[in-house]
From TrEMBL:
Pfam families: Glycos_transf_2. InterPro entries: Glyco_trans_2-like (IPR001173), Nucleotide-diphossugar_trans (IPR029044). Keywords: Glycosyltransferase, Membrane, Transferase, Transmembrane, Transmembrane helix. GO terms for molecular function: glycosyltransferase activity. Gene3D superfamilies: Spore Coat Polysaccharide Biosynthesis Protein SpsA, Chain A (3.90.550.10). The chain crosses the membrane at residues 6-29, 283-303, 309-330, 337-357. Belongs to the glycosyltransferase 2 family. This is Glycosyltransferase 2-like domain-containing protein. The keyword Transferase applies.
Length: 368
């Protein structure tokens, strides 16, 4: 029995090696990215619901973007606070701002996808760049950097949506490491020609890609997934690329309590079951290998079975995982989280297990 577990442990580490070196290495060890400046007209789309404080900070940074031709499409999704008033103020001040007012619709009550669809249809330009109301672009060249990755064939650009650093907060390090790992995964698979998700905090695509798949219609009843479910459906090797230029990042304020972050992650994870079969399987295999890598050595070491070999294999695994994620962290400006890598990874693995169990017995709350 112990010999079987030992062989299984070796197989798990081989699987981990495949993911970290072969798959994630496609992004982690890639050369620094270059962008070819474009002058294509861009429509920046922001959908907001009760975000008056955030949009007051965001809109001035969008207006000041260093790009020759762009409009800002502001979508107010039936807000009950002062969001619409702020939108109207900025619309009067800037000619390149277009306001889309969404009223509650019984068939699409509180559905962000419905609101986004109206904004996409109202956009003047064919190339669309999305961010959320609680995000801020990292520079005045955000539009320029994201649009630089568009080509005749590459009509979907996956960007990086980071979270602000909070000094002295271990939860913040967990959140940013999880964001780093997720980005490393979807960037890497996109580079391998198997794109499966993107984040609405930083995402760009040509409008024709939206209509090719009938927009959000195939998953309109699923409240989440205006970003990842759309990309899972529309993205393919031929039409998708990534952008990890530092000036292309967006930053959001992270959750400051474990409960709020746990609730947020429940919403994100709940959409994964709607991914294509291959994507569900590869994500599931990675997570199971992560969990078994923690559990199997505990059993083997408890019985002191081949303990020198077990400890050596554990060390080998942490070396290649640390190196791979370290290079990815360097590209995405998240190096400080890597000092805590082993501890954060353990916490994150068991948090994900908790999320899976919780989502099995109750549904998470979505956009309202």
């Amino acid at each position: 029995m112990l010999l079987t577990l030992f062989c299984l442990f070796i197989a798990i580490v081989v699987i981990q090696f495949f993911y970290y070196i072969v798959v994630f290495g496609k992004f982690s060890f890639a050369k620094p990215q270059n962008g070819t400046p474009k002058r294509i007209p861009i429509s920046v789309i922001v959908c907001a619901k009760n975000e008056e404080e955030n949009v007051r900070n965001l809109i001035p940074l969008l207006v000041e973007q260093n790009y020759p031709q762009f409009e800002i499409v502001l979508i107010d999704d039936a807000s009950s606070d002062g969001t619409l008033d702020i939108f109207e103020e900025f619309e009067k001040l800037h000619s390149n701002i277009k306001l889309v007012k969404v009223e509650n619709n019984e068939a699409f009550w509180g559905n962000k996808k419905y609101a986004l669809t109206l904004g996409i249809k109202a956009a003047k330009h064919e190339y669309l760049l999305f961010t959320d109301a609680d995000c801020l672009p990292s520079s005045k060249d955000w539009i320029s950097n994201m649009s630089s990755q568009f080509t005749v064939e590459k009509t979907i650009v996956l960007g990086y949506g980071a979270y602000d650093k909070i000094g002295g907060s271990f939860l913040n390090k967990i959140i940013r490491f999880e964001t780093l790992l997720t980005a490393t995964q979807y960037f890497s698979w996109a580079k391998l020609g198997k794109p499966y998700m993107g984040v609405g905090r930083n995402l760009a695509y040509k409008r024709e890609e939206f209509f090719k798949v009938r927009g959000f219609m195939d998953h309109m009843k699923i409240r989440s997934g205006d970003d990842d479910l759309f990309i899972n459906q529309a993205a393919e090797k031929k039409n998708t690329t990534v952008c990890y230029l530092p000036d292309s990042f967006t930053y959001s304020k992270p959750k400051t309590s474990f409960k709020d972050w746990f609730t947020q992650k429940r919403r994100h994870v709940s959409t994964a079951k709607h991914y294509k079969l291959f994507d569900r399987n590869q994500l599931g295999l990675f997570y199971v290998s992560q969990l078994l890598f923690l559990l199997l050595p505990i059993i083997l070491l408890a019985f002191q079975f081949q303990w020198i070999a077990v400890v050596s294999i554990i060390g080998f695994r942490y070396i290649f995982a640390w190196i791979t994620m370290g290079f990815a962290a360097g590209k995405l400006k998240e190096k400080d989280v890597m000092y805590w890598f082993p501890i954060i990874e353990i916490v994150l693995i068991f948090t994900q297990l908790n999320i899976f169990v919780t989502n099995t017995f109750s549904k998470p709350v979505h956009w309202r």
